[in-house]
Amino acid sequence: MLNQSKQTANTETILNIPFFSGSISEVLNFIKKGGLLTAPSGPGLANDLPNSFEYRRSLERSDIVLADSGLLCLWSRFFSKKTLTRLSGLEFLRKFLHSIDFLNDSTFWVMPDYSQSHKNCAWLKREFGADIDQGYIYIAPQYSSNSFIKDHALLTKIEQKQPKYIFIQIGGGVQERLGIFLKENLSYKTSIICTGAALAFLSGCQVRIPNWVDFIYMGWLYRCISNPKVFLPRYFKAFRLLILLFKYREKSPIL
Q1: How far apart are CA 85 and CA 139, in angstroms?
Q2: 1 in a domain, yes or no?
Q3: pTM of the predicted model as reported, rounded to 2 decimal places
Q4: pLDDT averaged over 10-residue windows placed end to end, the chain, 255 residues
Q5: Structural domains in the chain (count)
Q6: Is 49 within a domain?
Q7: What b-and-e string marks burial along 152-186, b requiring 16 or more CB atoms within 10 Å of the CB?
Q8: What pLDDT does 210 receive?
Q9: Residue 109: what pLDDT?
Q10: Residue 14 φ/ψ, nearest 5 degrees
């Protein structure tokens, strides 16, 4: 079992989650040394955090947690003594992919299905010349909705390949729990990247979000306009996060 400690104390604790409060360049430097990076969304914090012990534990034990939620950061700015700097998973992943050497640094990709895997890999090849070998791609099975995740087939495959970077590209609320399973069971030090649908935005599997839209915290609105039936209900539920923030502040929201 790999025992990794927190790599930085540069955090602000909200809802018992140690959100990273530095810059993107600092995040890049830290995560390249190994560890679990998560970027929980507003809906994930609003719905999964209070109801799933394993999701909550995965964030609390992450080495770096990005403050990806614009709603969380706005609340901290106006109603808390702690001001979080928003670090979006989309911005981080874009810069991280440009900072690594695909020829010399091995990468491993956990994909949600074959269709998205094909589109994501085609985009990586166009953008970076990265020809991802099929042996370094894993199509995730249907994991449980909120309990502990074990995937020994994936664990065995990663142990055999021992990649430097692992990118988990399945849904938020699930990928964090898979990430903590890998962190606690891999025998070697690696970087585990959980950035939600960020790669799907970049590759076009989901609607592409312009940089300026992401910068002004409006990525959620862009998604709602692109597919209102799917995203309007999801983001409407995210406003529950405000109730949790006002009620619990620094404490863990266990319902």
Answers
A1: 34
A2: no
A3: 0.86
A4: 51 94 92 96 88 94 93 86 84 94 95 94 95 96 89 98 96 92 97 90 69 55 58 65 91 82
A5: 1
A6: yes
A7: eebeebbeeeebbbbbbbbebbbbbbbbbbbbeeb
A8: 60
A9: 97
A10: -135, 135
Q: If DSSP codes are grouped into helix, strand and coil, which group holds residue 79?
A: helix
On whether residue 254 sits in a domain, the answer given is no
Whether 192 is in a domain gets the answer: yes
Torsion, CA 28, CA 54, CA 120, CA 21, rounded to 10:
-20
Measured between alpha carbons, how far is 151 from 154 in angstroms, rounded to an integer?
5
For the chain, the 3-state helix, strand and coil shares in percent, each to the nearest 5, are: 50, 10, 40
Cβ–Cβ under 8 Å, residues 204 and 11: no
Pairing label, strands 165-168, 191-194? parallel
pLDDT at residue 84, as a whole number: 85
Structure tokens at 179: 């990430």
Tell which phi-psi region holds residue 133, choosing left (phi > 0), alpha (psi between -120 and 50) or beta.
beta
What is the structure's pLDDT at 16?
Answer: 95
Residue whose C-alpha is closest to residue 169's, from 115, 123, 110: 110
Q: Which residues contact 244 (CB under 8 A, 6 or more apart)?
A: 15, 45, 46, 49, 50, 253
Tokens of 214: 């992401």
Residue 175 is part of which domain span?
A: 12-248
